[in-house]
């Protein structure tokens, strides 16, 4: 056993502790020979310690058995041909002149094939690209030019425009010159029709498979609760439909103050549902609100003067008024309402003369209604600003834009793109600051109703009533 000595210095006799046990063992004689060479340099005791060290080292060297090579076999040196093969298979730096990756020549065991094997059929899916016809899509999928052309002609016979992005299932057969024969090409030409070109005994033929489509409108109902927008969303309305509903409602009531938590909303959407399960939701057809205080709102989407507008169906019996309504200028939610607030940059309370819509950088901004652009350019803290005069002393103003695409003096239609959301001027991030100004005074945009486009005549009133009855199921 070997003790690695640890010498403890102290007032008492020196103590050597064997490291392996951690238990102090008293060795009174050891201090004569085992000495801390860092202590009492060149004293008699130090020299004796040094002598001990040399004596121990020398005896260890004398007693050591020495190093001998271990007995074992040696591999035979490689033949030059073998070495070449090994080099080709091994990974070695190319800079060292290695042959790594070289192909080896075939040996006598390799026989050439008389004919290459061929897959008898290929099944694949392709997506119709934008501006690409059926023929070109088949050609790039590996069909022969003649077969691709014939299939495209048959498909065109169905008289449907096939939308880019349509997924096409293709089965190709044996190789002809320059491509494969077509066995089957199948695609969805719309919600209600599947087209298949199939090869039978006579050649390629077109098969039309009609898919029944249910056009019953979709109805969404619910309670307003804490927030109308989120209640609409949780009742199943998409963000677009919820925004369209709020826009419609804003033509009849002040959404900001006149809607209560216990009011109940009702929406009817155009909807097409295929028997195979897919459905496509169409535009909002009806926007209703049953109010706890105040008259119920029933708005019907109705063409007026060649454009779709919201018609008040409740009052359709009396000399009815059609309300064109202000469009929402941007798709986004209101992040700051109209009224006094602490300005986020200037840090003092001031009147917020408009409403802020939170929207991403570059979101499109549209004109809220028909009108004439009276300002398009930089407006101090408002940054890039557009102002539109709508007649009747009403102006709308759009600020902090990143880009303006209309010119002052030009006419704009409701819903026309006028620029993009940005953060120009005094602004903390991309948003749209939207103001409505009536006769020079800023008013709450949610309170503005663009009323009376033109009265609806008696015949139309009947049609509106009938439509409403049909939509709401009588
Ligand atoms: Zn603002």
TrEMBL record:
- Supply the alphabetized keyword list: Signal
Tell me a Gene Ontology molecular-function term this record carries: metalloendopeptidase activity
Q: InterPro entries, alphabetically?
A: Cell_wall_metabolism_enzyme (IPR050570), Dup_hybrid_motif (IPR011055), M23ase_b-sheet_dom (IPR016047)
Indicate yes or no for the key word Signal. yes
Question: Ranges for the M23ase beta-sheet core domain?
Answer: 350-445
Q: What is this protein called?
A: M23ase beta-sheet core domain-containing protein
Organism expressing this protein natively: uncultured Sphingomonas sp
């Amino acid at each position: 056993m070997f003790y690695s000595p640890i010498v403890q210095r102290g007032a008492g006799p020196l103590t050597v502790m064997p490291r392996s046990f951690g238990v102090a063992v008293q060795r009174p004689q050891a201090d004569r020979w085992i000495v801390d060479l860092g202590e009492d340099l060149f004293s008699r005791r130090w020299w004796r310690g040094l002598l001990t060290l040399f004596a121990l080292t020398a005896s260890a060297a004398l007693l050591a058995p020495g190093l001998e090579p271990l007995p074992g076999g040696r591999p035979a040196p490689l033949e030059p041909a073998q070495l070449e093969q090994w080099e080709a298979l091994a990974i070695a730096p190319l800079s060292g002149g290695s042959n790594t990756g070289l192909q080896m020549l075939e040996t006598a065991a390799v026989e050439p094939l008389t004919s290459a094997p061929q897959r008898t059929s290929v099944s694949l899916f392709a997506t119709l690209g934008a501006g690409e016809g059926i023929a070109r899509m088949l050609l790039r999928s590996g069909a022969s030019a003649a077969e691709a052309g014939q299939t495209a002609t048959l498909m065109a016979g169905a008289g449907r425009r096939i939308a880019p992005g349509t997924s096409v299932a293709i089965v190709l057969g044996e190789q002809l010159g320059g491509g494969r024969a077509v066995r089957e090409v199948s695609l969805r030409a719309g919600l209600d029709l599947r087209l298949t070109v199939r090869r039978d005994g006579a050649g390629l033929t077109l098969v039309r498979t009609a898919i029944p489509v249910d056009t019953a409108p979709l109805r969404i109902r619910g309670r307003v609760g804490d927030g109308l927008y989120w209640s609409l969303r949780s009742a199943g309305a998409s963000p677009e439909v919820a925004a369209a509903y709020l826009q419609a409602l804003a033509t009849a009531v002040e959404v900001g103050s006149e809607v209560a938590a216990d009011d109940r909303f009702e929406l009817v959407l155009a909807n097409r549902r295929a028997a195979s399960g897919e459905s496509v939701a169409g535009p909002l057809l009806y926007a209703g609100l049953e109010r706890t205080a105040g008259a119920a709102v029933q708005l019907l989407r109705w063409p007026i003067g060649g454009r779709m507008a919201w018609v008040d169906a409740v009052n359709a019996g009396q000399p009815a008024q059609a309300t064109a309504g202000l469009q929402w200028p941007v798709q986004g939610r209101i992040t700051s309402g109209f009224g006094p607030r602490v300005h986020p940059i200037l840090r003092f309370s001031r009147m917020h003369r408009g409403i802020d819509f939170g929207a991403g950088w570059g979101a499109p901004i549209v004109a809220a209604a028909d009108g004439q652009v009276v300002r398009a350019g930089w407006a101090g803290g408002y940054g890039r600003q557009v102002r539109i005069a709508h007649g009747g002393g009403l102006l709308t103003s759009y600020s902090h834009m990143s880009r303006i695409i209309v010119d002052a003096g030009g006419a704009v239609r409701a819903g026309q793109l006028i620029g993009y959301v940005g953060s120009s001027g005094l602004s903390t991030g991309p948003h749209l600051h939207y103001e409505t100004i009536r006769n020079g005074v800023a008013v709450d945009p949610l309170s503005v109703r663009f009323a009376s486009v033109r009265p609806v005549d008696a015949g139309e009133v009947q049609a509106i009533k009938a439509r409403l009855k049909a939509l709401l199921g009588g």
